[in-house]
Specification:
The protein is an alpha/beta fold. The protein is built from twelve helices and eight strands. The chain starts with a strand and ends with a helix.
Amino acid sequence: MKYDSVLLVAFGGPTPGCCKKYNTENCPGEAYCFVEGIAGEAESQKERVKDIAAHYLKLGGFSPFNELTFIQAKALQNALEQRNLPLPVYAGFRHWTPYLKDVIAEMSEKGHRNMIGIIMAPHQAKVSWDWYQQTVRKGIEALEGEKMTIDYLEPWYTHEGYISAVADIIQVASGEKLEHAQLVFTAHAIPQVAADTSSYSQQFGKTAEAVADQINKKEFSLAYQSEVENSPIPWTQPDINAWLRKKAAEGVKTVVSSPIGFLCDHVEVLYDLDIEAKEIAEECGIDFIRTGTVGDHPKFIGMLADFVCEKFSQ
């Protein structure tokens, strides 16, 4: 079987134009609509939805997530063409337009039948990889009379291409300060029960270890961000904000923070780190340096392209 297309499978973020749940006149705002689609419509969730939507509003009401993912898709398509494998690369989202089911339908209409899927999340958990694959499966099942297949790339959380891209970004962002700074890697917090039943935290730790080794940083820390506030269940710890306060009490003056659990600078990085964590760091007298995400870094995109070529040749 030869593959005829590539599909980037990602989370998504609100862009101008309301979700399909509301008509234009009744739309409460893209950010609210987006967060409600994730948290649910229960009365108990309304305050949480408003609070998180406010993060988006503080950054203009929208997210750069989708556009950044489209840039990654274009970069990957170009990299494949350079490797004499001119496969079209699509991007679809679980929580916003273009929704995965609609992208899959479009691919089917264009005659694509055998896809290579790339989960745009470096670490595996039910709330990421499993749910993404379930959404794709439902999109394929919804096709009338058409059969499509999808094979996914294997996890790449310690692959040289990804690790080198992160290492490059850290070194450029921190410069000479890195030698004497406290290095902390962050990933999205998940419910502790989800962490206990997946390899998410272990993979996060292995990525951090590989990056630290490449930049010759013997000491580093792990922290989580974007935890749901006032949750009745425990989430992975330590939280980055609590970690910053603890380090300040220990006399730390400079922190380099690398969000290796994220592949592009969307709102959960731009708000939770660049605004919230940075404000706390400033209150504590810490020089807080947040490094970038891999985005369309050539080493990261090159790694994905090599994997696709390997998959195609099997």
